[in-house]
Amino acid sequence: MELKDLIKPENLVYGKSRLLEEEIMHYCPGCSHGVVHKILAELIEEMGLQEKTIGIAPVGCAVFAYNYIDIDWQEAAHGRAPAVATGISRLMPDKFVFSYQGDGDLASIGTAEIMHACNRGENILVIFINNGIYGMTGGQMAPTTLEGMVTATTPTGRDVARNGYPLKITNLIAQLPGTSYVTRQAVHTAASARKCKRSIKKAIQNVLDKKGTSFVEVVSTCSSGWKMTPVASNKWMEENMIAYYPLGDLKDSVKGENVLEN
Amino acid sequence: MAKVQGAVVVDKEGCKGCSLCVEACPQGVLNLHKEVNSRGYHYSFMETPEACIGCSNCGVVCPDTCLTIYRVKV
Ligand SMILES: Cc1ncc(C[n+]2csc(CCOP(=O)(O)OP(=O)(O)O)c2C)c(N)n1
Ligand code: SF4
Ligand code: SF4
Ligand code: SF4
Fold first, then answer.
1. What CATH homologous superfamily does A27-261 map to?
2. Residue A68 C-alpha to ligand 2 middle, in angstroms?
3. In chain B, which residue's Cα lies nearest the Cα of A31?
4. Which is the most buried residue in A31, A185, A230, B57, by most CB within 10 A?
5. What is the per-residue pLDDT across A233-253, written as a single tens digit (0 to 9) for each?
6. Is residue B52 lining ligand 3, measured as CB closer than 6 Å?
7. Does the distance separating the beta carbons of B74 and A33 come in below 8 Å?
8. Alpha helices of A72-222 — where are they, by DSSP H?
9. Which helix (H) or strand (E) holds A150?
10. Distance from CA of A132 to the nearest CA of B (A)
């Protein structure tokens, strides 16, 4: 069959979500933020939640998330997205509220906010983009930076004697009784991105069912901060990041229970 | 068994030449063009269109949602 006969609306199997704005995202080539934005837009559209959703944008590269997905947004101060999400979801309990945060935002400056929001079991979804570095400010060490990993502030590699250990904050969050679903996913392959989408769908459904906090970590790349090509970043991530931050569900239970599955 | 044929339409101007779609394609259909778009990126294109099976893997991994995929049974 000729390509022109194939390229017709009735044969469409994959295209851009109606909720994604036309504007080209400012992210670097290959950045995982773009894939996660796309998954969120697809799910909000497929689940019919456009009018119901309020996203909280972080400080970090995703600060402009509000320019890309056509839903209501509120920008928060660095690390404070869970506190802002708390206020909004308590005042408007019928809305679907999520925070979207990087590892500098969530696991460093915002540690108190995320821990207490999850411990209170706020009825929100948290999307946690763990790229092991401060992307926006030029690639400084984050709490999640791997041992030996070179960053702008650890030019000879992270030394645990001086800088402490890479923080598996998602494992801590899984132990808090307020969280109902805690999982760690990735989007570096088509299979992992499809699986991540299923996890985020489940997490959204939990919030709609008022089951407390659902938390989805996405182990991600930052090719600019890591100083690698996007393809090499994916490979490095698989061999190093995923080795330390293994993928899978950490907890899947109803609010109040605390069952660690792995 | 019915055979499938696929096709990918690339938003050339949106493409940032990251090559993730090229890596993700199980059929080796895509490559980066030697020409660049107005922003200086070598954009993705179907180098061997006849091999495409419309699996959407390329579209799913594209961070910039530049790929629209079509598929028919032939
Ligand atoms: C109160 C405050 N402190 C510091 C900064 C500087 N700052 C901006 S983004 C950022 C880190 C972002 O890293 P991360 O959350 O990992 O997101 P990424 O950019 O990697 O997606 C920092 C420290 C700031 N904007 N506000
Ligand atoms: S600096 Fe890193 S996290 Fe930020 S847009 Fe670039 S690749 Fe993405
Ligand atoms: S649809 Fe599948 S076979 Fe066709 S170019 Fe994309 S990844 Fe390759
Ligand atoms: S994944 Fe998207 S942005 Fe990257 S080269 Fe392919 S079409 Fe272009």
1. Thiamin diphosphate (ThDP)-binding fold, Pyr/PP domains (3.40.50.970)
2. 16
3. B63
4. A31
5. 999 999 999 999 999 999 998
6. yes
7. no
8. 81-91, 103-104, 111-120, 160-163, 169-174, 190-208
9. none
10. 19
Residue-wise pLDDT for A215-228, tens only, equals 999 999 999 999 99
Count how many domains chain B has. 1
Distance of alpha carbon A137 from its chain centroid, rounded? Answer: 19
**Residue A31 with chain B: CB contacts under 8 Å:** 63
Which CATH number covers residue B66? 3.30.70.20
Model confidence over A179-193: pLDDT tens digits? 999 999 999 999 999
Q: In which residue are the tokens 């935002």 written?
A: A105
What is the rounded CA–CA span in Å between residue A113 and residue A79? 7
pLDDT attached to residue A254:
62
Q: Tell if the pTM clears 0.90, that is, is over it.
A: yes
Pair A36, A128: CB distance under 8 Å: no
Per-residue pLDDT, A261 = 47
- Annotated domain spans of chain A: 27-261
User: What distance in angstroms lies between residue A67's CA and the mean position of ligand 3's atoms?
Assistant: 29
Separation in Å, CA of B35 to nearest CA in chain A = 17
**Complex ipTM value:** 0.96
Contact check, Cβ <8 Å, A17/B71: no
Q: Can you tell me the mean pLDDT for A249-262?
A: 65
